[in-house]
Design brief:
By secondary structure, this protein is of the alpha/beta class. It has one domain (8-250): NAD(P)-binding Rossmann-like Domain (Rossmann fold, 3-Layer(aba) Sandwich). Helix content is 46%, strand content 14%. It contains 9 helices and 7 strands. The protein has helices at 3-6, 24-35, 47-59, 74-88, 111-136, 160-180, 205-214, 223-234, 252-255; strands at residues 15-19, 39-43, 64-66, 93-96, 142-147, 185-192, 245-248. It has a 7-stranded parallel β-sheet with strand order 3-2-1-4-5-6-7, sandwiched between helices. Strand 4, helix 5 and strand 5 form a beta-alpha-beta unit. Helix 2 crosses helix 8 (223-234), helix 4 (74-88) runs parallel beside helix 5 and helix 5 (111-136) runs parallel beside helix 6 (160-180). The longest helix has 26 residues, at 111-136.
Length: 257
């Protein structure tokens, strides 16, 4: 009897890269995957921040390493892929989570900011995934999870570019899922609602109450709840799921229709 038969949510022995995992949803997702048995690669722009999170996981008896990578830079993506091949012989799980969130009116977004945001929020996800599939194919498959946002379905003022690119991720996931399914590679999208992270701390009391009124379960989500969804999609439990878009939003999406 295999470990996946005993526990379909186990990812024991798998190598998982989580981008943007030095804080918030990324850090919580990395912890969930590590608790489920994966060796996690903590990655963000700053090496010190990556090492801090990786060390905290190791202190808990989990398997983790730190590796800085700015996914807005193509050379960083190439270097990460080479590192994963040299050190681990490939990759099993990729969670694309790093993001830029410019808070601007659409008319105030200049070409420079537009390009910088696209480089991280779409180009980075695309080429990191393209490298990942090359690392996953020889291992018989793998899982890619792209972290989108409820803004992909319900745009918000001042976050027009962010929401546009989060919508694009849904199409990207479906395209990759179609092209690489025959190689055992599954690609899905998770759409978080409002999650209790440092970003949510910016909401004042009135704004927070409005959000809670729109959320049927009447609370904000916890970062690890996104991690649990990623674990499901990356484990044997989600083996028949690909090209899907999963909203983890406390029901907010149905209350906004």
């Amino acid at each position: 009897m295999t470990s996946s038969t005993l526990n379909p949510f186990s990812v024991a022995g798998k190598v998982a890269l989580v981008t943007g995992s030095s804080q918030g949803i990324g850090a919580a997702t990395a912890r969930v995957l590590a608790q489920a048995g994966a060796h996690v690669v903590i990655s963000s722009r700053k090496a010190d921040d990556c090492e801090r999170v990786a060390q905290a996981l190791r202190d808990e008896g989990l398997s983790a390493e730190a590796r800085a990578c700015h996914i807005g830079r193509m050379e960083d993506i190439t270097a990460m892929a080479a590192h994963l091949q040299a050190k681990h012989g490939g990759l099993d799980i990729l969670v694309n989570n790093a993001v830029l969130s410019p808070w601007r009116k659409i008319e105030d977004i200049d070409v420079g900011l537009f390009g910088k945001t696209v480089d991280v929020n779409l180009r980075g996800y695309w080429f990191m995934s393209a490298e990942a599939v090359k690392l996953m194919e020889p291992r018989g498959g793998g899982s890619i999870v792209n972290i989108s946002s409820l803004s992909a379905w319900h745009p918000e003022k001042m976050l027009g570019l962010y929401g546009t690119l989060k919508t694009a991720l849904i199409g990207m996931s479906r395209a990759f899922a179609l092209e690489y399914g025959e190689f055992g590679i599954r690609v899905n999208t998770v759409l978080p609602g409002v999650i209790e992270t440092r970003l949510a701390e910016a909401f004042d009391g009135e704004a927070k109450e409005r959000i809670l009124k729109k959320t049927p379960v009447h609370r904000l989500g916890q970062p690890e709840e996104i991690g649990y969804a990623v674990l499901y999609l990356s484990s044997p439990a989600g083996a028949f799921v690909t090209g899907a878009s999963l909203a983890i939003d406390g029901g907010m999406s149905i209350s906004m229709i």
